[in-house]
Structure formats: structure tokens, C-alpha cells
Specification:
It comes from Rubroshorea leprosula. This is Translocon-associated protein subunit beta. Keywords: Signal. By secondary structure, this protein is α+β, with helices and mostly antiparallel strands. The chain folds into 2 domains: about 1-145, Immunoglobulin-like (Sandwich); about 145-174. Helix content is about 25%, strand content about 40%. It contains 2 helices and 10 strands, in the order αββββββββββα. The strands form 3 sheets. It has a 4-stranded antiparallel sheet with strand order 1-2-6-4, with no helix packed on it. Strand 1 (about 30-40) and strand 2 form a beta hairpin. It is elongated and about 50 Å long.
Length: about 170
């Protein structure tokens, strides 16, 4: 929970910094990477990854390339899409999105690293780099504890009990 709050705070700070920089005639690239786990009926697990690239600045960038090589081949198989992508340009205020899907081969915690975006600014000779937000650790093929199911059953049972108690109390008062 604390990690989520700090990530949200960082994104809000980035928004305010990007608003301040938007007044200058420069690009400001923000890259957001998200990953979610999807358990299949077969018992395997897939990881859906989406990466959004925002140009919060006021000028266009060219030769935009995304690379997300943080998924080792001995741990994941690519099921759909690619871990890299290129675009000709990203206009000021624009958004580029890319997604791919992986299937996990082994169980355990996975700590991904940020994706890398390279781009060219017409006023600079060297390629520029931007890094995505990190993803939260993924517990791949984790055992799902049945205790959570029992907690829900006890909560529902207790609420039914309270409902009956209140109804009977209401009937007795009338």
C-alpha cells in the first residue's frame, strides 16, 4: 500500500514538473509501464504488459524506440506482441501505447526493471533516453490461499446474522 501511495505521489510530482516544463519549447517524455497477472484455467499464468509514452512537452520528438528487455527467456515466453517497438515521431501532447503478453515458465517473485525509450530531438545530435516507471514485484504462479475464501464466507455469514438480528428486533419493537 505504501509503495502504491509513493508511486501515485511520484506521478503527481511528474505531472507538476511536466506542466512547468511545458512552457519551454522542449519535449518532456513520461513513460508509464504496467504489468498484471492473469491466471488461466490450465494452471499457467500470463503477464500482460502495457507501456504508455507521453510527450508532455511542446515540441515533437523523432525516431522513438521502446525496449523492454527485463523479461528473461528462461522465465517467460512471449505469447503475443514484442518487447520492443519503434515509431517515426511523437508529437507534442501526444501518446503512444504498446502492449505484449508473456507466459510464465517458473514460480517465484519477479522484479522488473524500467523500460527504456530513446528518441531524437532536432536541436540535439545525441539520442535522448527516458525510463519508464518501475512495476511492482510480481508473485508468479503464487499459491492462492484458501483462507481468503473463508474470510469472505465469515464476513457474509456475519452480515446475514446482523441483518436477521436487526429484522427480529424491529418486529419485536413493533
Amino acid at each position: 500500500m505504501a509503495v502504491t501511495k509513493s508511486l501515485i505521489a511520484a506521478l503527481i510530482a511528474l505531472f507538476f514538473v511536466s506542466s512547468a516544463l511545458a512552457t519551454a519549447d522542449v519535449p518532456f517524455i513520461v513513460v508509464h509501464k504496467k504489468a498484471s497477472l492473469n491466471r488461466l484455467k490450465s494452471g499457467s499464468e500470463r503477464v500482460s504488459v502495457s507501456i504508455d509514452i507521453y510527450n508532455q512537452g511542446s515540441s515533437t520528438v523523432y525516431d522513438v524506440s521502446l525496449s523492454d528487455d527485463s523479461w528473461p527467456q528462461d522465465t517467460f515466453d512471449i505469447v503475443n506482441g514484442n518487447t520492443s517497438k519503434s515509431w517515426e515521431r511523437l508529437d507534442a501532447g501526444g501518446l503512444l501505447s504498446h502492449s505484449f503478453e508473456l507466459e510464465a515458465k517458473s514460480k517465484g517473485m519477479f522484479y522488473g526493471v524500467p523500460a527504456v525509450v530513446t528518441f531524437r530531438i532536432p536541436t540535439k545530435a545525441a539520442l535522448q533516453e527516458a525510463y519508464s516507471t518501475p512495476i511492482l514485484p510480481l508473485d508468479i504462479l503464487a499459491e492462492q490461499t484458501p483462507e481468503n475464501k473463508f474470510e469472505w464466507v465469515s464476513i457474509v455469514s456475519f452480515s446475514i446474522f446482523l441483518n436477521n438480528l436487526c429484522f427480529r428486533t424491529f418486529l419485536c419493537v413493533c
